[in-house]
Amino acid sequence: MSDITAQPALPPPQARPGTRSLDVAVMTIVLLALWQAVGSWTDGIALTPPLGTLAYLADLVRTEMFWGNVAATLGAFALAFVLSAVFGLALGLALGLQRFAADVAEPILAGFYTIPKVTLYPVVLLIFGLGASAKVAFGVMHGLVPVTLMTLGAVRTLPPVLMRAARAMRLTAGQAMWSVLIPACLPDIVNGLRLGFSLSLLGVLIGEMFSSQRGLGFLLVNGLAQHNVKLTTSVVVVIVVAAIAANTLMLRLGNMVRPTAGR
Amino acid sequence: MLAIPVLALEVLCRTGVVDPMTIIPPSDMLASMLAQIASGDITDSMEQTFSTIAAAFALAVAGGTLIGAAVHAQPRLRRAIDPLLASYYSVPTFIFYPLLVALLGLGMAPLVMIGVLSAAPAVVISTLAGLDGVPPVLLRVARIQRLGRARTLWLIVLPAAMPRLFSGFKLALSYSLIGVIAGEFILSGSGLGYAISFAYQSFDNRAMYGLMLFVLLVAVLANGILYTWEGHLARRRVRG
Fold it and tell me: What is this structure's pTM?
């Protein structure tokens, strides 16, 4: 469990709202400068500098090839994330409510979280065959565990008084789950979903990088194979920007549910 | 508890419900793993992979701790890199691997780099958390005892921050292991990850499952050792 909870978003030390956006701006400029430096140092052979990448990207987004690959990745990822979220939530709630099952499952899940799952991708391919379903399954393998573990942890550390209150009010199991358990665990659940989001994306991309003819992961490796570093750099930029945007959105969402659920 | 699914898989494979072209019986995986270790076929791959992971882990721990300490001492710098740290792990770090190969060539260097890139931020984050968690009263005690900077660091700060630092090291090990093996698996010419993908591509299921079992056992063992050690540290701390 500690493996996951040890990675919280750091609380900014006494940050005033005005300086925060300035900090982000400064950081972005430093990173861009670094990118430019490495790019020009290698003459753009290994890494295309920012402006060159933007120019290439502007052309790239006008091709059908690019959007076809985006659609392939997005489709597989959306399915993987939804499956991870639904099954992770169900599994976490079910396990969390039973002490024995949770005691047994937690170390196994935590162990599975830390092993290199890439090595298991051939098994996934043998079972599901080459194609979209293998990518989805691999994404679920990555995304399911954090959602389950965070939900399980939230249910187990729930103040007992809440469930006692639910029993005192004679709520049925369904009512108790819907109006007590889930709202109380929501901040942790959103956090788990955030982790599941980035990890199932990683799973899908690794699947595409290893063996696939479509998708952004395929483009990454293909760009390298064809000595088209512009393509690889552009795809990296697209993924990084999309991932950070999604993460920021989900962090906001997590902060929104916190005040009402914590008390 | 894991014995039940393993036994079930064994029975399913032996009775032919599961096609041996898909999954081989667990006992065969074990036999294949032991045979490959004994024959020395994978000794080179093992050396290659483990030294790469060791290099990545050492660099991530040393670099991450130093960066964490430096950033902790500069609140202004810390506020600047804070958003970076907060969103770092939302980006699938592994997508940088093809760029690293383009930058550093195919070999050990990009693998070490991807291991460090996956692991070091975890160490930085836990170093910051550990240093934040040092109780101010301990630092006052150090000042009363007139300890120098080095001795304060060694006798007060390090022991007080150790539990959090250690959980960062634990993450760093599993992240660098995952990064390096994933790199070998996707794009490289040697190492255990490469051996698995090579066996897959040449339809050598027996060798592939033996190698997988080996890698997974090593990963579980390494994480288990650190986990136990962490528990040991925590207990010693409680006893004082």
Answer: 0.85
